[in-house]
Amino acid sequence: MGDYISSKERRAIIKHNRREISRLEAELREVGTNAAVMRDPANIVEFDGLKTYFYTETGVVKAVDGASFDVPKGGTVGVVGESGCGKSVMSLSLMRLLQRPHGQITGGAIRLDAPSGTIDVAKTGNGGMGGIRGGVVSMIFQEPMTSLNPVLRIGDQLDEVVALHAPQLIGRGIIKGGGRDDVRRRTIESLEAVSITSPDRVYRMYPHELSGGMRQRVVISMAVACSPQLIIADEPTTALDVTIQAQILDLLRGIKDSYVGTGIMLITHDLGVVAEMADSVVVMYAGRVVERGTARDIYKSPAHPYTVGLMRSKPQPGRKERRLYSIPGRVPNPVSMPDYCYFKDRCEYAGEACSLYPDEFAIGNGHMVSCWRKGDI
Fold it and tell me: CB–CB of 232/95 below 8 Å?
């Protein structure tokens, strides 16, 4: 009964949403420049207090509520957290693929070091993202079968990506011209880069004629076809068996080594994948970053109670347990977030200080945690 909304309240919410959406859309159109300055030139992208909200009939869903972290050039950053914590929404915000007008970036900045100069993606409309998507930042989506068009051949879909960014690729010397043969040649090269043994045959096939692992390779080849500076891998091993998962992870490592300077933002629930792939780890909970640091720091010395709970929930080699550990309680409602620490109601270490949301504290060289206990757990 506590979640019940009357018709009058619903009308008031809809009216408020329309007003806010109109304001945000107008601000996006009125922005005269989206130029920005990187805080650290060694980074390819910097999330700075990002807020991404969805305006629904039941209220404003704060999917990402002030997230901050960096992705360095040539580095791999693993973003972990349970479903609904804002991982995918953050990546969609970077790509400007939110379902507008209801999905909006309402605050913060996303600074991207693009070849034409540093820009703030949060202030960039769809018109300014044409050369960014695919050319500078590309994305490997969760389910390849829904990412590929079932009625178009593999080659046609890859050719479209290469042809769209042909001027950039010509300028960088990746292709000689924008003709059909040049585009096809680059497509075949991208299929070969993901270890597809018969690229000419796969080029002529439809998605349904390929296995799940082959489709995932095709999606990865589409992501690397234009040699982007940043690859967002959103659950790249979902729905794949263990053997194929290992092959895909090896493939991503090979791509990172082949494309010098290319960063990877790896979004996953699998802590094992993150341990194997990532240089640094970002732990998200309820739309915020609660802990970040090197993979060694996070795995050897987790400092936030939520991170500790995640580590306890994974199987331990050599230890028999009748039932795996699960964090008690539920994630707070994103429509009405509390004004205290979001994890307080589920935390066994909670105290009086947790009545206020904690600041971010440094507890080591680059190891940051948003917890009043500052790692003393």
Answer: yes
Distant-in-sequence, close-in-space partners of 56: CB < 8 Å, separation ≥ 6: 17, 102, 335
**b/e burial code for range 254-269 (CB count within 10 A of at least 16 → b):** ebbeebeebbbbbbbe
DSSP 8-state secondary structure symbol assigned to residue 178: S
Cα separation, 66 vs 14, in Å, equals 24
All structural domains of the chain with their residue ranges? 288-369
Q: pLDDT digit string (tens) for 304-355?
A: 999 999 988 877 777 777 787 888 888 998 888 999 999 999 999 999 999 9
Element housing 137 (H / E):
strand 137-140
Rounded Cα distance between 125 and 31, Å, is: 9
Cα Rg of the chain (Å, integer): 22
Residue labelled with tokens 């709970």:
309
Of 108, 78, 131, which Cα lies nearest the Cα of 269? 78
Distance CA 351, CA 362 (A): 20
Q: Which two tokens stand for residue 77?
A: 């950053």
Summary mean pLDDT of the chain = 89
Per DSSP, which regions of 9-129 are E strands? 43-56, 59-72, 76-80, 103-114, 117-120
Bridge partners (DSSP) listed for residue 82? none
Q: How far is CA 262 from the centre of its chain?
A: 15
Question: Are 23 and 51 contacting, i.e. CB atoms less than 8 angstroms apart?
Answer: no
Alpha-carbon distance of 72 to 261, in angstroms, equals: 9
- The pLDDT tens digits for 88-141 are 999 999 999 998 889 999 999 999 998 888 999 998 887 788 889 988 999 998
- Count the Cβ atoms, other than its own, within 10 Å of residue 341: 25
